[in-house]
C-alpha cells in the first residue's frame, strides 16, 4: 500500500515567502494526503509527498547535485517569486536545510538513549523545527532506542497538528530494525495520548510483523483495522495473502487470492512464494505450477526461493521431469543454485529413482564444497538400493563416513544392507550389519528382512533359518513384508530344502504356511479348496503386498511344475482385481500385458492367453483383429541381467510361436491374425495343451 507521510527532497518548498528577506519564517500547517478526507497538497505546501510502501522502507536521502548559491541569493534583496531565479533559490535553500536535518537525524541516532541527551542535540540544532522538519528528521533515523525519545521531544516542542504522522514515521524506524514489540508499545502510547491510528499506522505494523516473520501478529493487526474505522487498500490486502498463508489460515489466503485475481491487485513475489508453499503443503502440485505460470504472465520475476519451493513441490509430486524444466529455467534466468536448490533436486530425483540425474547433482554439490545432510545421504542410498546401484552406494557411504559433518544412522545402514542383500553379496551385508551394531544401532525387522533376502539369493537356507530364529528371540513380530520375503526365498530354494522354510512360515503366519503346503504337496486337493484358502490369505494381508504374495505363490508353482495350481492362483488375482487389465481387445489389436508380473506369473498368464486364443479362434470361430501383441515392457530387473522381455522371447521361441519383437515399439512382440491362427491350429493338431 502506498500512502503519504513527507516530502521528497528533490522537489520541495514552493512557498515564496520562505525565501523573502524576513528574518523569521512563518510556521505553516502540514497536511498529509494519505487521509482521504484531507484536501490535496497545493504548490504552496512546504513538502510534496513521498510514497511509503509496506514492503519498502522510505529512502533516507535522495542524492542530488546541489547548485552553488550565487551572490544574489546571499543579499537581502526581494526576488520576484515568478522569476526563474526564485525556483533555483527555493531549491538551493531547502536542499541546504534538508541536509541539515539529515545530519540532525544522524546525531540523534548516535546520542545516548536518554531524554537529556536527545534534548541537548535538538537544542544545539540552533533553529526552530517545524512539523515538516520533525517528519524529515524522524524519517531519516535508524536507531530504535532513541527514536521514541525524539518523538516525545518533538511532540512537546513542535506541537504538530496531526500527531499520528509523527507516530507513523517513528514506527517506520522501529520497522527498519524489525522491533515489533517496541512498535506495538508505541501504538499503545498513541491510544493513551488520545491519538487515533490511521491506515498508515496499521500497514506499518502489519509490514513490520511480516518482516519479523510473525504472520499471526500481522493477521491480528489486520483484523483490528475495522474497529478503528480503517479500510485496507488493495496492496495491503495482497500482502495479507502472504500473512494468512504463513499463519496457517489457508482458506482466507486463497479467498483473498481469488479476489486479487478478479480485481487485478498487484501481488509481489513474496506472496506468490507463499501461495506455492500453500498449494505444495496441500498436495495440489498442479496449483503450484499454475501459480508459476501466472507469475510469468504477469511479468513478476521469480526469485530463488520460489524456484526452490517449486523444485521441492515437484519432488513431493514425484515429477522429476518438471523439476528438470524448472532447474533449467532457474539457470537460464541467471540464478546460481544454492544449497536448498541442490537439496530439492536430490530429493526430487532420488524419490523418483532418477539415478543418473541424482548422482550428477550429488557430484556437483561435492565439487562446489556443499555439505550433505544425513537425510540427503540416506535419500541417495535408498535410491541406490531400489535401482541396484551397488558400487555407487558404497562410494556414497564412504563419502558420508569421511565428510566429518554427519554420521551414518540406522536408516543409512538399512539402505546399505539392502543394496548388498538384493544382489546376494553375503560378506558385504554381514560386514555392514556388524558395523551397524558397533555404531550402537540394533537391526530392525526391515534390516533382518534384507539379511534373509541376501541369504536366500545365496541359497544359504540354514542362515535364513538362523536369522528367522533371531527375529523371534528378539521378540520382534514378523509382519506381512517379512513373511513375503520368506515366501520369495522359497521361490529360489531347491525343492529338497523348502521344508525348512515352510516350518518358518508356519510359525510366522500359519495361514500362509497352510497355503504353501497345499501348493507343494503332490496330491491334488478338492476343486475350489486351494482357491478358497488362498483367497482368505489374501484378504488377511495389506493391499501393498497382495500382488507380491500372488507373484511368489505362482512362481513357486511354476518352479515345482504345478501349472494347474498356478493358473488357479492367477485366476484368483484377476477376480480380486489385483491383476487388472492383463488382456485388452480393440478392433485392430488384441493384447496381453505382462509388465507388472513376476517371471512365473508372466509365463502363466501367457499360457492362459494362448488357451483363450485357441478357444476364441478354433472353437468359437471368433475373428481375430489384424494384430495380436504381447507387452512385456523394456526394462530388466534391477538386480538381474534377465529382463521379462528376454524370458518371454526365449519362451516364445521354444513354442515356435510367430511373435516377433516390434522394431518401433520397445517391449512389444507382435504377430498377424493369419500367422497366429496357423500356429494355433498346428499346436492343436500336434496335441500341445500348454504354453
UniProtKB/TrEMBL annotation:
The keyword Transmembrane helix does not apply. SMART domains: SMR. PPR repeats lie at residues 163-197, 198-232, 233-267, 268-302, 303-337, 338-372, 373-407, 409-443, 444-478. Keywords: Repeat. It comes from the Eukaryota. InterPro entries: PPR_rpt (IPR002885), PROP1-like_PPR_dom (IPR033443), Smr_dom (IPR002625), TPR-like_helical_dom_sf (IPR011990). Residues 592-677 form the Smr domain. Belongs to the PPR family. P subfamily. PANTHER family: OS03G0856100 PROTEIN, PENTATRICOPEPTIDE REPEAT-CONTAINING PROTEIN ATP4 HOMOLOG, CHLOROPLASTIC. This is Smr domain-containing protein. The gene is A08p018570.1_BraROA.
Amino acid at each position: 500500500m502506498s500512502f503519504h507521510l513527507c516530502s521528497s527532497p528533490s522537489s520541495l518548498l514552493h512557498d515564496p515567502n520562505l525565501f523573502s528577506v524576513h528574518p523569521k519564517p512563518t510556521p505553516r500547517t502540514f497536511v498529509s494526503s494519505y487521509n482521504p478526507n484531507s484536501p490535496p497538497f497545493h504548490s504552496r505546501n512546504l513538502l510534496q509527498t513521498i510514497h511509503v510502501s509496506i514492503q519498502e522502507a522510505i529512502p533516507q536521502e535522495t542524492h542530488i547535485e546541489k547548485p552553488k548559491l550565487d551572490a544574489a541569493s546571499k543579499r537581502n534583496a526581494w526576488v520576484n517569486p515568478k522569476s526563474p531565479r526564485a525556483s533555483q533559490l527555493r531549491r538551493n535553500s531547502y536542499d541546504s536545510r534538508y541536509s541539515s536535518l539529515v545530519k540532525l537525524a544522524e546525531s540523534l541516532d548516535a546520542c545516548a538513549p536518554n531524554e537529556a541527551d536527545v534534548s541537548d542535540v535538538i537544542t544545539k540544532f540552533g533553529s526552530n523545527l517545524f512539523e515538516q522538519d520533525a517528519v524529515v528528521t524522524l524519517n531519516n533515523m535508524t536507531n530504535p532506542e532513541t527514536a521514541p525519545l525524539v518523538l516525545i521531544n518533538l511532540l512537546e516542542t513542535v506541537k504538530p497538528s496531526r500527531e499520528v504522522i509523527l507516530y507513523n514515521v517513528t514506527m517506520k524506524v522501529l520497522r527498519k530494525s524489525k522491533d515489533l514489540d517496541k512498535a506495538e508499545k508505541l501504538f499503545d502510547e498513541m491510544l493513551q495520548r488520545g491519538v487515533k491510528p490511521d491506515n498508515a499506522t496499521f500497514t506499518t505494523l502489519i509490514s513490520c510483523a511480516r518482516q519479523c516473520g510473525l504472520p499471526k501478529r500481522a493477521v491480528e493487526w489486520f483484523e483490528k483495522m475495522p474497529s478503528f474505522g480503517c479500510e485496507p487498500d488493495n496492496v495491503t490486502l495482497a500482502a495479507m495473502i502472504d500473512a494468512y498463508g504463513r499463519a496457517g489460515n489457508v482458506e482466507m489466503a486463497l479467498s483473498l487470492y481469488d479476489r486479487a485475481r478478479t480485481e487485478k491487485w498487484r501481488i509481489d513475489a513474496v506472496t506468490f512464494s507463499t501461495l506455492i508453499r500453500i498449494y505444495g503443503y496441500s498436495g495440489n502440485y498442479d496449483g503450484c505450477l499454475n501459480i508459476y505460470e501466472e507469475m510469468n504472465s504477469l511479468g513478476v520475476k521469480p526469485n530463488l526461493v520460489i524456484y526452490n519451493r517449486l523444485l521441492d513441490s515437484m519432488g513431493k509430486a514425484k515429477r522429476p521431469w518438471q523439476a528438470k524444466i524448472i532447474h533449467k529455467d532457474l539457470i537460464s534466468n541467471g540464478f546460481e543454485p544454492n544449497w536448498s536448490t541442490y537439496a530439492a533436486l536430490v530429493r526430487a530425483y532420488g524419490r523418483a529413482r532418477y539415478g543418473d540425474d541424482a548422482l550428477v547433482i550429488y557430484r556437483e554439490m561435492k565439487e562446489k564444497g556443499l555439505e550433505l545432510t544425513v537425510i540427503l545421504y540416506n535419500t541417495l542410498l535408498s535410491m541406490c538400493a531400489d535401482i541396484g546401484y551397488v558400487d555407487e552406494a558404497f562410494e556414497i557411504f564412504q563419502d558420508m563416513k569421511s565428510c566429518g559433518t554427519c554420521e551414518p544412522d540406522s536408516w543409512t545402514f538399512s539402505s546399505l544392507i539392502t543394496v548388498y542383500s538384493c544382489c546376494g553379496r553375503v560378506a558385504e551385508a554381514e560386514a555392514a550389519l556388524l558395523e551397524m551394531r558397533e555404531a550402537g544401532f540394533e537391526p530392525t525387522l526391515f534390516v533382518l528382512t534384507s539379511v534373509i533376502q541376501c541369504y536366500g539369493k545365496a541359497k544359504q537356507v540354514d542362515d535364513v533359518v538362523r536369522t528367522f530364529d533371531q527375529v523371534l528371540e528378539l521378540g520382534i513380530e514378523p509382519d506381512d513384508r517379512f513373511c513375503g520375503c520368506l515366501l520369495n526365498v522359497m521361490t529360489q530354494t531347491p525343492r529338497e530344502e523348502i521344508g525348512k522354510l515352510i516350518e518358518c512360515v508356519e510359525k510366522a503366519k500359519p495361514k500362509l504356511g497352510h497355503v504353501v503346503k497345499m501348493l507343494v504337496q503332490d496330491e491334488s486337493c478338492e476343486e475350489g479348496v486351494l482357491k478358497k484358502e488362498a483367497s482368505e490369505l489374501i484378504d488377511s494381508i495389506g493391499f501393498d503386498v497382495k500382488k507380491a504374495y500372488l507373484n511368489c505363490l505362482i512362481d513357486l508353482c511354476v518352479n515345482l511344475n504345478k501349472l494347474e495350481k498356478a493358473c488357479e492362483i492367477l485366476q484368483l488375482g484377476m477376480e480380486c482385481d489385483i491383476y487388472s487389465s492383463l488382456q485388452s481387445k480393440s478392433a485392430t489389436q488384441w493384447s496381453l500385458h505382462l509388465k507388472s508380473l513376476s517371471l512365473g506369473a508372466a509365463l502363466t498368464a501367457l499360457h492362459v492367453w494362448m488357451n483363450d486364443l485357441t478357444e476364441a479362434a478354433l472353437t468359437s470361430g471368433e475373428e481375430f483383429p489384424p494384430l495380436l501383441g504381447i507387452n512385456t515392457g523394456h526394462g530388466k530387473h534391477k538386480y538381474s541381467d534377465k529382463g521379462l522381455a528376454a524370458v518371454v522371447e526365449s519362451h516364445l521361441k521354444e513354442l515356435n510361436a510367430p511373435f516377433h519383437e516390434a522394431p518401433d515399439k520397445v517391449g512389444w512382440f507382435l504377430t498377424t491374425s493369419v500367422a497366429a491362427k496357423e500356429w494355433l491350429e498346428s499346436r492343436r493338431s500336434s496335441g500341445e495343451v500348454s504354453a
